[in-house]
Fold:
Amino acid sequence: MSTATLSQSKSFDFKRLFFMLLGLTLFTVVYYCPAWPDAIDPMGEHFILSQEAKGAIGVFLLAGVWWVFEVVPIGVTSLAIGVLQAMFFIRPAKVAFKDFMDPSVLFIFASIMIGLVFTKTGLTKRLAYKMLIIVGEKTKNIYLGVFIVTALLTHIMAHTAVAATIYPLLLAIYALYGEGDKPTKFGKGLFIGMAYIAGAGSVITLLGAARGAVAIGFFQEILGKDITFFELTYYMAPIGWGMVFLLWGFFMIVLKPEKATIPGLREKARELNKQMGPLSRDEIMAAVLVGSIILIMSLRSFIPELKAIDKTALILVSSISFFIFKILDINDLEDIPWNIILLFAGAMSIGFCLWETGAAKWMAVNWLTIFQNAHWFIFVMSIAFFVLMMTNFIMNVAAIAISLPVALVIAPYLGVAPEVILFVALAVAGMPFLLLVGAAPNAIAYDSGQFTPGEFFLYGIPASIILLIVVGFAVLVLWPIMGMPVTLPG
Structure:
């Protein structure tokens, strides 16, 4: 055997081959295995798992393995999701691939465009320098400053748009760390932390994500009760902000920056800020366009007339305007991270596939009925765990949509108040810490190149455990003190 052949043999990636075959094996076994038993809810209704639904679960498992271990680029795994649905007749190709251009995917595209504009015009550098002048040279304070700014922004705008806005700011900050593009603990903590905090902050108001409005809609339809904007914020603020500071402590332990300080950073930030001079025409125009869109999107929750305007159409107005006013040109389209766009396109497709084939409902009923005779606290935490797992694979809106109705039916039998079910589901649905597809900020952070999907998953395990502990504490201690009914009288 020649030296060249030996070299090729040694470089062959057996680990990649193993996980590629594992994903394919899981799909094949699930798809072709005999029929599984029906799921039966407490009312006696049967939920059949059809061949198409089994196929959906198989695709779901394959995608999960391939995404976590990145056997192919994450966007290519998303293409496989559509291809498998079409080739194995799980859903028609027209339906499976139509989800790749769902409004939610275009919302993410438009959010990334905002980040691109902020970077090109220099607005992010200005913001980064201003923040560094305030927080100083200690890396632990830089972590905290970034996390607080991210959380605050999610109170008034969608966490996807926040992540797209903060991301280039983090790139500007990291450039001053002095390690180039090399992955470091500080880089990992900065970008993974931003993704986690965007989720934590987004649970606090209805403006942070669509999931809150959807869950409240289900709650009102099933129980005839309404939850107001400020009531949601009252109960969720301790959870969201508690997680912000706990996650800061978490990252200071597991990803403690290599450098405690960046000597001369404050002075360097002042100097660089001064060098930028006055605001340019493009900076002012970009700030006005984005600010106007954010204002209108925020007002949709308060002005009924604006609710009829779709949020994706609104945010795409900004994308179009960037080209109308020549802030961007056609060459800038090459800088769009299409791998990330495809990632979310595939996530939407598998989410709708699980929903439309009935696979998601079958899984939810089977899981929750296991706990229908358990202690009420165990039942509540089982809901938290199920929604947390589902929201890492599919849209958090879909995770709530498949679990909340079932949980609200079972809850009265165990003496559990419906309010606690709603708020527990909302808390965990907003914080998918395990997989990149769980939320757009996760995927946006991944584009930094500071971490792998596997690293994100590993750091997400203890972070998710912290979240479950916080939710458990809220259910048993905090929310009852705040006046939330947790159990039903008698």
In short: Confidence is low (pLDDT under 50) at residues 5-9. Residues 25-31+41-482 form one domain. Residues 453-482 form the longest helix (30 residues).
